[in-house]
Design goal:
Radius of gyration: 33 Å
Distance between the termini: 18 Å
Structural class: alpha/beta
Oligomer: single chain
Length: 988
Amino acid sequence: MEPTPEQSPHHAYPDHWEADVVLRDGGTARIRPITTDDAERLVSFYEQVSDESKYYRFFAPYPRLSDRDVHRFTHHDYVDRVGLAVTIGGEFIGTVRYDRINDQGRPASAPADEAEVAFLVQDAHQGRGVASALLEHIAAVARERGIRRFAAEVLPANNKMIKVFRDGGYTQRRSFEDGSVHLTLDLEPTEKSLAVQRGREQRAEARSVQRLLAPGSVAVIGTGRTPGGVGRTVLRNLLASGYTGRTYAVNRAFDEGAGTLDGVPAHRSLGEIDERVDLAVIAVPAHRVPEAVADCGEHGVQGLVVLSAGYAERGAEGRELQRELVRQARSYGMRIIGPNAFGIINTAESVRLNASLAPESPARGRIGLFTQSGAIGIALLSGLHRRGAGLSSFISAGNRADVSGNDFLQYSFEDPDTDVALLYLESLGNPRKFNRLARRTAAVKPVVVVKGARHSGSTPPGHAVPVSRIPDATVSALMRQAGVIRVDTVTEMVDAGLLLAGQPLPAGPRVAILGNSESLGLLTYDACLAEGLRPRPPIDLTTAASPQDFRDALAEALADGTCDAVIVTAIPWVGENGEAETGDGQVLATALHKAVAGGAAKPVAVVHVEIGGLAEALAAASSTAAPRPRTVTPAADRTQVATTLPIGPARSTAPATPATPEAGPTPEAPTTPPVGPGPGSPAGPKAGPAPEAATGPGRIPAYPAAERAVRALAEAVKYAQWRRQAAVPGKIPEFLDDTIDEPGAAALIEAQLATAPDPRGRPLTHDEARELLGRYGIAVRPTLPAPDPEAAVAAATRLGYPVALKTTAPHLRHRADLGGVRLDIADEEALRRAYGELTDLLGKPAELLPVVQAMAPRGVDTVVRASIDAAAGAVLSFGLAGAPSELLGDTAHRLVPATDRDAAELIRSIRAAPVLFGWRGSAPVDTAALEELLLRLSRLVDDHPEVVSVALEPVVVAPHGLTVLGASVRLAPPPARSDLGPRRLPNY
């Protein structure tokens, strides 16, 4: 909304204060500054407020606003006087205002840093979190305008408002004066206020998804009068799924008084329906969608699933249509799945919703599935069905203009029916938030992700999101740090999901292998070694083994304290007549069931090859779907797939006796206790009684190839280890505080940016970088310029022999392979000779920019970097210098701020890490000093976001201590931190 000419030209309308927010009940609202055009809206809003609320606001009966009041409350300078309104459908439902005051409580201007604040919320919308959202946003506005404290007068009986202030998490002081409660809030964000804000965000966004997945009534808009078409297909699928709510068919082309369609009421518009509809599925051409959305908004629909195509996937014009669609829906308080969506499914017995184009609802299970691709969604639903796996929920978000993978994580974290969250993502709209949500969710249940469009270099069609510059390898490392199980293909995602949903987490990497094929056992053994597991020698039961032999061997393996998981390999066994017989797969299932029923809680997986009837028995017996009125059988698929084996009562999914890692990458024997509920039991803050599907037979996943089973198990092992470590988070050592000069560094940065000719910042010189890094205890070995041989000799004399002579020209920096570095120069004669050789080989001194530096103790050359990505945040990186990191990409990454555990893991995560720990008899280097360096650099970029990039290269790590030989630093105005401001929905 634009300002009018009456408003001060010196303070333009602050459109960056506008925001869409999710309220406590899952509905959306718009927060924006109040303008002079809002007089009628303000009067209408005030008329709908109860006399009691008016009394609480003005401390006296105040039935109506005077013209003077209206003028005062709609005219602001957006600095000393600011008003914000919460709107739904363009109308006010709540307001907040601050006025800057001085120490005597009188109106003032800057530098006064206190303001009086007051709220008013319509009674019909109280309890929805409107005031809490307004407090977050008005506090952010005040901080931006230099206000540090809010003062508020509240009547003692106004408990709701007192609770809003008390629960905000800000530091506050309270006193009782003249019959009212006087509150003073310090507006500087605190850990508590940020935690409160994120907790509210989580509950609201989870609720918004829950409203979409569990509606009491559904209208399909665009239902065709004849069979076929998208709308009619969705209606058919809704009815076939046994949806427990009320269903309506809507099409403006219906004849008046059409009656019913497929047995459900048929209407020309939502206005003809006697009740409020909770969810609308829109399946009309794109040019008719705005009309349908308006009809939904005007009749109180809570959420939309837009199947219609023709939006951002069509280019710039379609992208603008998509933005307008989101703006229109949010203006009515509705959230959107889509456009160009495939639909949503909820298998809960109390809902049984299939509002999608999938012809058959999946079985009820414990896996939640989110996908940004309809085609991938179809493939995943079909694959999970063939493997006998059930789902708790399914969302195919299409262009993902509103509801995203982040919202799905918020929902999955709370959903007691979901034990494993699977996500197929093609873009990350807010990587920083995704990592935060994924870390919290992964602490209670596994999160498995496939990231598409990794190497295309562009955003997928239809996904209007900020582009991150960080490479995919870095994204993968950051996901791992957050506990996300990232796999490369949808097949691997399902393989891992099946294991995690039906089996306990492994206590360590030790694997027992048993079966009736020596060759298949050896293949499994090799696959385990390749995945970093520690397999025991395979137990060959021979081809004559019977199901009873399998049972006995599995029971013995489960009782063996030296193994953490079991892989059973099976081929058709030999009968009494000496001939191979395929037998009934259920016979083997029964035998394994009996072994597991009395065994220890360890994960078990089956690798099977051509056992007749086994796949069919597994798929049929593991179905957990409730009886459906109507089903559609998918086309036969002869591809060999993994399936699930019903095998005894569900067992605890907590790791039994977890293994702890040794100093290197190989884990040692179990020593630590279990870490709580695993993925096969309800977890999270609202876990309750499990549904019927989770209390039936436990499921052992079965795979047609050893590599697939082992890869899934390896992911479970790594995830279980992350869970154990996450239970005791790392910390930033206190000793850093005594050796860091944060104010001094801030002063240096401010001075350097003030002199930068480019507003985008500038690189620091060598001496400037040394001074800044020194404030954080990072010593960079000095270099002296050597523009001629005499200067080189003088520099060496000053530094002391032996020295190094090296070029600093950009094209030769750190390129010892090109002859630009001469080491161990012992005296003046050798230095003059080296100088001459250098200039003869590579060019004139003015081109080479040679420098002299004292030699450092011998060690391993490494590279330490930190950079800030606008989307992902600050990232700390580490690798060995030269070919390992530059050619092979062997670099590890962690998000800043890094803890002591992050630093230790960082240097051990690269493939070349053994070089640091005494590889091939060499002396181990001082990794403790290296970890301290990483922590100091992490602290620097975390304390000062103006430091947008740092490269320490090389860092020579010796057996005792390390030396930083080169450093480059770039300063720039810090990118905006959306995760620290008030909560808001993204607008792409």
